[in-house]
Amino acid sequence: MCGKDFPRKVNFCPFCGTRQGGAQARPDERVQAEERARADERTRAAERAKADAQAKLDEQARVAAKRQADEQARADAARAEALAQVRDGAAVAGSAAQQPSDALTSDQQAALERLNQLRGNGKPAAAAAASAKSTASASAHHSANAQGNGAAPSPPPLRKPISKSTWVLVAILLGLIWFLARPSDPAKKLQARVDQAVAQAQDCKIDLARNEYTSLKADKASAAQLKQVQDTISANAKKCDAKRNRAKAWNDLRPQLESALQSGSIDQADRRLAAFTKTWGADDETRELDGRIDVRKGERLLNDVDACIKRADRACAENKLQAAEKLQRNELKPRIEVLREALSQLLLRTVLDQSAASQPVSAPPPATAPRAQPGQAAKPLPATPSGQQAQPAPQAQPSQQAQQARKLLSEAERELRQGNYKAAMDKANICATMIDEGNRECTALKNRAERMNRELMNCVASGREWIDDRCQ
To answer: What is the pTM of this model?
Structure first.
């Protein structure tokens, strides 16, 4: 293809790059070629100048070394001659003892002067050679810079070596970074996420637990871990739904119960609370409200007891008081004790009234004045407001006392069977002290009622239940 115009005329061969005959260099290529030629010429001129300076420097060094060698040879010869003359003079001085040891002859003095001159001439020659060498090198360096061929810069000074303490500090820092940023065990991370999902499910955060289950499944957790999370979610889903429904029902019911208590509709509040606890079960809030309702019910019963005592209706008072005691509220105990004492007084008055009413009316025996002691006057009987003398108090017959004692004893036994130990104690006490003093059956029943009441108090205080006259 080189030198051919077919099939297409080209300026350069596509295979070897040879310029073809008809191709002409472009202006920019000519300029670049001229610049390269001038640069090559400058480089060659700088190299020639450097070589000439080096040759001149070598020539001056050879001349200075030759001159120094010649001067050194002459100085050695002069030194040897001076030393010989000095030895000769010392021999002559040894023969003449009167001559001072430090006196020199004229010949010796001249030899020493020549020796000193030779020493002084040698030093300027060496200095001149060194200065010539430095001058030549400086001129060569200056000429090389003038020609555009810059010399290589001198290397920078060596850095101070890194100390061992620095390496130790770097090692400690790298170890700390590794300890803080080291990757944890993937199995432990998955187990921690599983525990977190289980805790969320147990806290009724079912949506979060299900999201975490989906994430664990995507991260390829083990089948046992996925089954644990799934079982926990399934076990707590219904419980959490029931808990949410119960909370909603309680939030709706509680304002109604509070309103009923404030308006005095205690029975209505009690019925609604009982229906709620039967459906949803009891908790601390329902038990607290149930206690408040019981207190209100007990206060109403005690008010009824007070009204019954004022009407002297002993049966009504006893029934109401027993109902109040069955509530077993500590808030009602002081008032129950007071009303129990009032009921005992009512029972005593009733017994005495019955005893006085059952006494037969008979003519009073004639009043006889007591015998007067010697020296004393007889004292008359006290007079009544009608002007008649007071008669002595009638005494109950033994058959009537036994009948009243049996009646009180049967009532006390009935109260004891019903679990009303305090009422049994009061009736047995009246029977043993006022109706039939010293009656063994009344005293034994009183002691039994006191023992049962004491066991009941101990059982309730220990938190157990009293059922069928026994603590369970």
So the answer is: 0.40
